[in-house]
Structures are given as C-alpha cells and as structure tokens.
Automatic annotation (TrEMBL):
Keywords from the named record: Chaperone, Coiled coil, Cytoplasm, Stress response
Species whose genome carries this gene: Pseudodesulfovibrio piezophilus (strain DSM 21447 / JCM 15486 / C1TLV30) (Desulfovibrio piezophilus)
Localization, UniProt: Cytoplasm
Recorded family membership: Belongs to the GrpE family.
Source species taxonomy: Bacteria, Pseudomonadati, Thermodesulfobacteriota, Desulfovibrionia, Desulfovibrionales
Protein purpose: Participates actively in the response to hyperosmotic and heat shock by preventing the aggregation of stress-denatured proteins, in association with DnaK and GrpE. It is the nucleotide exchange factor for DnaK and may function as a thermosensor. Unfolded proteins bind initially to DnaJ; upon interaction with the DnaJ-bound protein, DnaK hydrolyzes its bound ATP, resulting in the formation of a stable complex. GrpE releases ADP from DnaK; ATP binding to DnaK triggers the release of the substrate protein, thus completing the reaction cycle.
GO CC terms, sorted: cytoplasm
UniProt-recorded name of the protein: Protein GrpE
Signal sequence, renumbered to the chain: none
Main location: cytoplasm
Gene: grpE
One Pfam family of this chain: GrpE
Subunit structure: Homodimer.
Annotated InterPro entries: GrpE, GrpE_CC, GrpE_head
C-alpha cells in the first residue's frame, strides 16, 4: 500500500508510486468502455423497424391490432393466389377448347364455295345432275368432318326470326308471305364453334 495525502492506495500495477492511474491502465479502461458502448450501440441498431414488426407479429396476442392486420394480409394473399390459380386453369382449358379455331376459320371459305355451287343448280340438264350430286355429297362429308371438331351451322333459314346476336343484316327486302323482321335470304352461312359464335350468318331481312 502507498500513502498519498493521508489515503492508502493499493499498488496492483494499475497505479504508479504516487497513486495515479497509469497510462496503460487508463487506455485499457477507455478501450473497454468504448467497446461496451459499441456493443450497446450495435445491439440498438441490429434490428430494423420491419424486423421488429415481424417479431411483434409472431409473438403478440391474437387480439392485438398488429396481429389482426398481419392475419388480414395473409388471408388476402391466400385469396389472391387461389384466384390466380383458378384463372390460369380456366385460360388453359379455354385455349385447349378453341385450339383449332384458326384452322376451322380458314376452312369456312371451302364450305362457302360449295354452297354457292349448289345454289346455282337450277335448270341444269340431266348430264349435270350427277355432278351436282357429287358436289352435294362432298359438302356433306366436309361438314360432318368439321362438326366432329365442334363446328355447327347457325340457324338462318328463310322465315327464321332475325337475331342480331347471330345474324348480320346485309340489307332489307319486301317479300310476300314473310313477316316483319324475318330472314328473307341467306347470303352466307354462319357457324358456331363449341357453342361460341365463330361467324355470324349474313342475311337479308324482310320488312313488311
């Protein structure tokens, strides 16, 4: 022990002979204090606001507003995911169902030409009858083939009520024996593809 101004000072390597804290000890204590402050500072900034909120959402009671908000967000996300799945499945089925639409649309002019050919068979001699029969059989075979892929003819016969949803009016005419707004003439046949309108029937509408 060393006495300094009536005070006993222990000599343990930290103090000099006069009882003053040595430079080395002072530096060590300063470094220790700074290190402790840095640890405290790091502990304070380790978690961001988002991380703190996430921890809160995991540990708070079910009645807490934060928990209710997190649960609401989770349920909305699940609902959105389910809706996306259903939409993708529906679009895939729709694409598969109407995959041949473009091909069948390209084949319609063939049916149109066969219809035109059969529409000009009046007053033909007997030698042409076999030719007409052959064209008619070809049309029926062709129509049966496309029907197997879901193609159906729009009802647009003479006397049928005009329907703007499936018929396209090219003009009007006045014919006896037909009521107002009835089809007087079919200019071009219309078709459905698996229940969906592929092409409207082009007609002349009677106006009484």
């Amino acid at each position: 022990m060393v006495k300094n101004k009536n005070t006993e000072v222990p000599i343990n390597g930290l103090y000099d002979e006069e009882g003053t804290l040595s430079d080395v000890a002072s530096e060590e204590m300063t470094e220790t204090s700074v290190a402790e402050e840095n640890v405290e500072t790091e502990a304070e900034v380790t978690l961001s606001q988002e991380e703190l909120e996430a921890l809160c959402k995991e540990s708070v009671c079910p009645g807490c507003d934060v928990h209710k908000e997190a649960e609401s967000i989770r349920l909305r996300a699940l609902a959105d995911t389910e809706n996306v799945k259903k939409r993708l499945v529906r679009e895939a089925e729709e694409m598969k169902k109407y995959a041949g639409e473009s091909v069948l649309s390209d084949l319609l002019p063939i049916l149109d030409n066969l219809d035109l050919a059969l529409g000009h068979t009046e007053n033909l001699d007997a030698a042409c009858k076999n030719f007409v029969i052959g064209v008619d059989m070809t049309r029926k075979l062709f129509l049966d083939a496309v029907k197997s892929h879901g193609l159906e003819v729009v009802d647009a016969a003479r006397g049928v009520e005009f329907n703007p949803e499936v018929h396209e009016a090219l003009g009007t005419s006045e014919e006896e024996g037909l009521g107002d707004n009835q089809i007087a003439q079919v200019v071009q046949a219309g078709y459905f593809l698996k229940g969906r309108l592929l092409r409207p029937a082009k007609v002349m509408v009677n106006k009484a």
